């Protein structure tokens, strides 16, 4: 670990521009990285917080094919959506770039040429999967098959998303092209490989020895597993028509593989920022007194802890990451988040449905962050955390302090009198919190840090509840001067300590308390007069509003609609039954009928007793549809009746036939209706 770094380079995983940002991305990468960057800035540290859109690779090509547009149109569309979502949500990047920018193409090409000229690549002709029908080589994500390690039959050619194993497309069992559905063939092609096995000893020493005690167990464990499994050369080029052209002779029609190109995007984005700000970019990537931290999700651990460090080591002039505090996955209402299945809470939609509630989502995601294991986001938990914690604890304390200050002193901070032991103990406890919260943040325990922030608000609530200034004011108004002064110091501290976690709330609170730009993080521990006497504060404003059940139900209903749509899209027809002869079919007497009467069968939840006009008679048919239809709604409905089915006694009622039904994608019963013009008794043949 770097002690007392001169500057910080903080990177957040480059989001793919094949779709918008959802809460899984936020919880895994962007909220924790933003908390860390904001915290460091409050300590007056030199910070470069870097990100950008990842705009190359097969995911973009797949999206373009699916939407019938060009890859450029795909990346332009989603880059704009993603960038705006981050801005609206308050993610405070110093630079948000894109890998389609010229500065990135130049940087990535130069990086490749440096390694190429040093002889760090292996050039090989290998057999790759080829779709003869589509007449193209298949990049990893265009191949799907059975994972050889866990048996998942929907594994991609680069990674199994069930077990997390990194794969090559040729490893898959029963591979299929996602373009045509055909079984691909093997065909020879030339590519350049980074020999990861050469860096085995370096990686073992750097990570397994050097970072054994400070990297998160989930990160350390995955890296160790990879190293123990044996590193192999990995291709850095691909046969693809979308990406950065491989900048050497004999590489026509090939591009840099996206995993090689994308992490270099951190460097090119830093260059872009430095040019704009008139800075030198190199110290942020090449100076030993710089602390480099990568924030990623667990599906990117191998790329940031094995492959990218090997690339940096091969190049020779770059520093290595001090830490890679990857989070686990966030699930949604018990199911895995899925962009392709639309099982997600999209950030741009959240901001439409919950305007000005960015901090509520930040709070819910941080307090339930998947820091050490996969966690589950539910709308009910989101509501409870807002109503029971933000409103009832944080908001309640601030509201009481501001209301009472305006009520007793017209908003002017009172001059305190003598401090009691409780006052001094409370202020001493307050001064300890910045160090406590900082310790958690510096160890990337953001959930723990947020809990300590809320403890500051609890400290304020307890102080007011114990001191009861609204009662003391009647008999000892001089004592209330001190009580309100102490409470205001806690409120002032919250306006700063909350900023990394709840930036919009902190800004609003600072405006109310008139503390904007007044002090930094360390001031809280050093200064006993955070909000000085005789300062006039503003009127009370609600920091948080209660979220009602109706708002939450709307979100749950939206997800249920998605689940239904997915079932409909993925529903597979049952296989055909054994063949029959025409004579078998001809034995069935299918007739058009009309339901004349319907009533529930006593003591039977599923059964309705129907009277049906079949054209040849009016007969009784007992049908198990009571859970799907009320008697009233089916009277008069045309139905298809199997008229010559042998009668059957059901709960003492003779049923003389059967009506034809099916189930839709939602599992709901649906009548097989004859055309409205068909009369009762007409035969179906």
Automatic annotation (TrEMBL):
Zn(2+) binds at residues 147, 150, 160, 163. Its main location: cytoplasm. It catalyses: tRNA(Met) + L-methionine + ATP = L-methionyl-tRNA(Met) + AMP + diphosphate. Its EC number is 6.1.1.10. A motif ('KMSKS' region) lies at residues 336-340. InterPro entries: aa-tRNA-synth_I_CS, Anticodon_Met, Met-tRNA-synth_bsu_C, Met-tRNA_ligase_1, Met-tRNA_synth, Methionyl/Leucyl_tRNA_Synth, MetRS_core, MetRS_Zn. A motif ('HIGH' region) lies at residues 15-25. Is required not only for elongation of protein synthesis but also for the initiation of all mRNA translation through initiator tRNA(fMet) aminoacylation. Belongs to the class-I aminoacyl-tRNA synthetase family. MetG type 1 subfamily. Homodimer. This is Methionine--tRNA ligase. It comes from Flavobacterium gossypii.
């Amino acid at each position: 670990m770097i002690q007392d770094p001169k500057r910080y380079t903080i990177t957040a995983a480059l989001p793919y521009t094949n779709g918008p940002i959802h809460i899984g991305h936020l919880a895994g990468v962007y909220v924790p990285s933003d908390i860390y960057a904001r915290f460091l800035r409050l300590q007056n540290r030199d910070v470069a917080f870097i990100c950008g859109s990842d705009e190359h690779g097969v995911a973009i090509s797949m999206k373009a094919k699916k939407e019938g547009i060009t890859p450029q149109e795909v990346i332009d569309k989603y880059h704009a959506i993603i960038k705006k979502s981050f801005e609206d949500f308050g993610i405070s990047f110093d630079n948000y770039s894109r890998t389609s920018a010229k500065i990135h193409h130049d940087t990535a090409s130069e990086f490749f040429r440096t390694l190429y000229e040093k002889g760090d690549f292996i050039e090989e002709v290998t057999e790759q999967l080829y779709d003869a029908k589509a007449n193209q080589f298949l990049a990893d994500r265009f191949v799907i098959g059975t994972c050889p390690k866990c048996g998942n039959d929907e594994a991609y050619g680069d990674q199994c998303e069930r077990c997390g194993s990194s794969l090559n497309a040729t490893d898959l069992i029963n591979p299929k092209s996602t373009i045509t559905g055909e079984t691909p063939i093997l065909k020879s092609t030339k590519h350049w490989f980074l020999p990861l096995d050469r860096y085995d000893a370096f990686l073992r020493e750097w990570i397994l020895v050097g970072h054994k005690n400070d990297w998160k167990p989930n990160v350390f464990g995955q890296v160790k597993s990879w190293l123990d499994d044996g590193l192999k050369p990995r291709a850095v080029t691909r046969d693809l028509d979308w990406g950065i052209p491989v900048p050497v002779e004999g590489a026509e029609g090939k591009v840099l593989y996206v995993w090689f190109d994308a992490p270099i995007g951190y460097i090119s984005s830093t260059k872009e920022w430095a040019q704009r700000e008139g800075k030198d970019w190199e110290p942020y990537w090449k100076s030993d007194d710089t602390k480099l931290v990568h924030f990623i999700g667990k599906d990117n651990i191998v790329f940031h802890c094995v492959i990218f460090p090997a690339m940096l080591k091969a190049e020779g002039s770059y520093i290595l990451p001090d830490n890679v505090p990857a989070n686990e996955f966030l699930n949604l209402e018990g199911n895995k988040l899925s962009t392709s299945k639309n099982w997600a809470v999209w950030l741009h939609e959240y901001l439409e449905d919950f305007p000005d509630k960015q901090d509520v989502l930040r709070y819910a995601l941080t307090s339930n962050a998947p820091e050490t294991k996969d966690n589950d986001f539910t709308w009910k938990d989101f509501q409870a955390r807002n109503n029971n914690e933000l409103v009832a604890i944080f908001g309640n304390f601030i509201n009481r302090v501001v209301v009472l200050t305006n009520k007793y002193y017209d908003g002017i901070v009172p001059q305190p009198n003598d401090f009691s032991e409780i006052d001094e103990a409370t202020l001493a406890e307050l001064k300890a919190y910045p160090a406590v919260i900082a310790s958690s943040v510096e160890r990337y325990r953001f959930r723990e840090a947020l809990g300590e922030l809320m403890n500051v608000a609890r400290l304020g609530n307890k102080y007011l509840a114990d001191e009861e200034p609204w009662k003391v004011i009647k008999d000892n108004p001089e004592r209330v001067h001190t009580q309100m002064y102490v409470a205001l110091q806690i409120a002032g501290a919250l306006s700063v300590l909350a900023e990394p976690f709840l930036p919009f709330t902190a800004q609003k609170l600072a405006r109310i308390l008139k503390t904007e730009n007044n002090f930094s993080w360390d001031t809280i521990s050093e200064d006993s007069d955070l909000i000085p006497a005789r300062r006039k504060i503003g009127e009370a404003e609600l920091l948080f509003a209660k979220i009602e059940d109706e708002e939450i139900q709307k979100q749950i209903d939206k997800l249920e609609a998605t689940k239904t749509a997915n079932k409909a899209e993925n529903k597979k027809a049952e296989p055909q039954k054994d063949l029959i002869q025409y004579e078998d079919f001809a034995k069935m007497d299918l007739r058009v009928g009309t339901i004349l009467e319907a009533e529930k069968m006593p003591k039977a939840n599923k059964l309705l007793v129907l009277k049906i006009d079949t054209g040849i008679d009016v007969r009784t048919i007992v049908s198990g549809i009571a859970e799907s239809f009320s008697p009233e709604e089916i009277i008069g409905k045309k139905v298809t009746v199997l008229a010559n089915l042998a009668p059957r006694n059901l709960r003492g009622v003779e049923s003389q036939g059967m009506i034809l039904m099916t189930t839709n994608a939602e599992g709901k019963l649906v009548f097989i209706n004859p055309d409205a013009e068909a009369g009762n008794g007409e035969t179906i043949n």
